[in-house]
C-alpha cells in the first residue's frame, strides 16, 4: 500500500497542473489578442493622422504635439490602455488637421 502513495500524489499534482493550464491558457491568449488588436488600431490611427498632417495646408502645433505623444506611447509598447491612449491622441490630431484646411 505504501508504494502506491507516491503514484497517487504525482497523479494528483499532474491533474491539478492540467486544470490550471486549461483554465489560464485561454485567458492568456485572449489577453494577448486584445493587446494586439488595440495596438493595431492605435497604429492605424497614427498612420491616418500622419496622412492628414502631410495633406494639411497649414501647420497645426497642437496636432503635431498630440501625434508626437501618440508616437512616444507607441514606442513604449505598453498594454491595451496605452494603445487606447495613443489612438485617442492620434484621433484628436487627425481631427485638428482635418479642421484646418
Gist of the model:
The protein has helices spanning 5-55, 61-76, 80-99. It is an all-alpha fold.
Estimate the helix proportion, in percent. over 70%
Distance between the termini: 86 Å
Beta content comes to: under 5%
Principal-axis shape equals rod-shaped
Mean pLDDT: 90
Q: Which ranges are low-confidence, i.e. pLDDT below 50, for 5 or more consecutive residues?
A: none
Annotation field: number of helices: 3
User: What's the total number of strands?
Assistant: 0
Q: Note the main sheet.
A: none
- Structural class estimated from helices and strands: mainly alpha
Specify Rg, calculated over alpha carbons: 24 Å
The run of helices and strands is HHH
Amino acid at each position: 500500500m505504501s508504494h502506491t502513495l507516491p503514484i497517487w500524489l504525482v497523479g494528483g499534482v499532474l491533474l491539478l497542473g492540467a486544470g490550471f493550464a486549461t483554465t489560464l491558457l485561454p485567458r492568456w491568449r485572449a489577453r494577448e489578442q486584445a493587446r494586439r488588436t488595440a495596438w493595431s488600431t492605435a497604429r492605424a490611427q497614427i498612420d491616418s493622422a500622419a496622412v492628414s498632417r502631410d495633406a494639411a495646408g497649414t501647420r497645426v502645433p497642437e496636432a503635431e504635439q498630440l501625434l508626437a505623444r501618440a508616437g512616444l506611447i507607441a514606442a513604449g509598447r505598453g498594454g491595451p490602455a496605452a494603445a487606447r491612449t495613443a489612438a485617442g491622441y492620434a484621433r484628436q490630431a487627425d481631427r485638428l488637421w482635418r479642421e484646418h484646411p
